[in-house]
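Hi U.,

Before I forget, here's the chain from the pilot set. I'm dumping it here mostly so it's searchable later in email.
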Amino acid sequence: MVVVQAALVGNSVFYKLASSIGMSMSVLIAYRFVFAAAFIVPLALLLERSSSYTYICASGF
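Structure:
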């Protein structure tokens, strides 16, 4: 719980700093989505690797 709160505080500070420098909030949101996808996609591929193999075998391909 403390780690989540620290991450949220760091995120808020980062956004405040970037917006005070003059960075667009649209660009910040786009960067957030890109970094989230870069983290989640490999994690999902690793975790679902064995279950996707069973789906492929069951479908006949």
